């Protein structure tokens, strides 16, 4: 046979495969999401997310030791509480669950990057990400409260505030408010292209943030749309976002690619709870090789163009890389 081109030559052994590998994972680009609860001495596994825990702030410190020793540069904090009201006051309470933890975090781990998810849904009785009137989520009144939450978390020590609400104009309003308060060094990571997705299911179970009526399609994006993601990202960059995010990750690799090619800011991708729990569940049943499936899917997110990967697998990956 006169076959001239033989691509298999570069696959003949592990050493040559290593040499020609195009995508590598590094612990430097991982962010580990963490759920914080009120109380003391709590480290309780989340039923819908095996291997992920609720932490009270005292136990959180021990967890952060581990995160730090694994070399993971930062964490993304979520507050979980049963103190809820119709305007989500817990989100902008200076003594709220995240704010209290942040003060302690920053004192004990001054180098680590603390990102605070900024939204109302974990704190509203109706579970929506904003203020509800007549069954609708109002934009501007919601932005006002989102800004308060961002200020309160930045003030408590968050290095990065990450609005995940998808209200219009919130990035610009947060930037102005931070700057007006002398918090010019605090960065904004905007959940810019955040799709209305079934893959947030395990998270909503964990945070008790499932909407009591309706759904989030009035503010989160329609998964049929691509150009809309580019518009959302452009707006957030123009309003002052330092990092933009695509979420979820695995069903949106095309969006990650488009965004990372077109814009010149760091692109984060959020490998969300449903993407995590699907692999965990299949692995528990012995239907899938967990390590291989995780490495393959997170590498795909990296290959698509994400520079920062937010994933519940961060600790495991840090050990495997
Ligand atoms: C809050 C928020 C959600 C997630 C991150 N921030 C849930 C939602 O929008 O319903 C999802 C994270 C995950 O599924 O891992 N707005
Ligand atoms: Zn929300």
UniProtKB/TrEMBL annotation:
EC number: 4.2.1.24
Classification via InterPro entries: ALAD, ALAD_AS, Aldolase_TIM
Leading EC class: lyase
Binding-site list for 5-aminolevulinate 2: 273, 312
One GO location term (cellular component): cytosol
Domain of life (superkingdom): Bacteria
GO-annotated molecular function: porphobilinogen synthase activity; zinc ion binding
Pathway connected to this protein: Porphyrin-containing compound metabolism; protoporphyrin-IX biosynthesis; coproporphyrinogen-III from 5-aminolevulinate: step 1/4
Binding site for 5-aminolevulinate 1: 204, 216
Needed co-factor(s): Zn(2+)
Record's catalysed reaction(s): 2 5-aminolevulinate = porphobilinogen + 2 H2O + H(+)
SUPFAM superfamilies, per the entry: Aldolase (SSF51569)
Sites where the protein binds Mg(2+): 232
Any one Gene Ontology BP term: protoporphyrinogen IX biosynthetic process
List of residues binding Zn(2+): 119, 121, 129
Protein purpose: Catalyzes an early step in the biosynthesis of tetrapyrroles. Binds two molecules of 5-aminolevulinate per subunit, each at a distinct site, and catalyzes their condensation to form porphobilinogen.
Subunit structure: Homooctamer.
Recorded family membership: Belongs to the ALAD family.
PANTHER family: DELTA-AMINOLEVULINIC ACID DEHYDRATASE
Designated name of the protein: Delta-aminolevulinic acid dehydratase
UniProt organism field: Anaerobacterium chartisolvens
Classification lineage: Bacteria, Bacillati, Bacillota, Clostridia, Eubacteriales
């Amino acid at each position: 046979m006169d076959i001239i081109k033989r691509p298999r030559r570069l696959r003949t052994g592990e050493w040559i495969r290593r040499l020609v590998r195009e995508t590598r994972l590094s612990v430097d680009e991982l962010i580990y999401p963490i759920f914080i609860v009120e109380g003391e001495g709590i480290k309780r596994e989340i039923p819908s997310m095996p291997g992920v825990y609720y932490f009270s702030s005292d136990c959180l410190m021990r967890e952060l030791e581990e995160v730090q020793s694994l070399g993971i540069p930062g964490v993304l904090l979520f507050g979980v509480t049963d103190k809820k009201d119709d305007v989500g006051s817990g989100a902008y309470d200076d003594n709220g669950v995240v704010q209290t933890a942040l003060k302690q975090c920053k004192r004990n781990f001054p180098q680590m990057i603390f990102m605070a998810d900024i939204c109302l849904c974990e704190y509203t009785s109706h579970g929506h990400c904003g203020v509800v009137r007549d069954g609708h989520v109002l934009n501007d009144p919601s932005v006002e409260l989102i800004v308060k939450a961002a200020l309160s978390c930045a003030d408590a020590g968050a290095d990065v505030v990450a609005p995940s609400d998808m209200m219009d104009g919130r990035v610009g309003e947060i930037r102005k408010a931070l700057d007006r308060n002398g918090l010019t060094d605090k960065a904004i990571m905007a959940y810019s292209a955040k799709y209305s997705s079934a893959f947030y299911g395990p998270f909503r179970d964990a945070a008790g943030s499932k909407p009591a009526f309706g759904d989030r399609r009035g503010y989160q994006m329609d998964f049929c749309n691509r150009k809309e993601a580019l518009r959302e990202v452009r707006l957030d960059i123009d309003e002052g976002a330092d990092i933009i995010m695509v979420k979820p990750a695995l069903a949106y690799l095309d969006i990650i690619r488009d965004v990372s090619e077109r814009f010149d800011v760091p692109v984060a991708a959020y490998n969300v709870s449903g993407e995590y729990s699907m692999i965990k569940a299949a692995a528990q049943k012995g239907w899938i090789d967990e390590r291989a499936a995780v490495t393959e899917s997170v590498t795909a997110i990296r290959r698509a163009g994400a520079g920062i990967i937010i994933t519940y697998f961060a600790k495991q990956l840090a050990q495997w890389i």
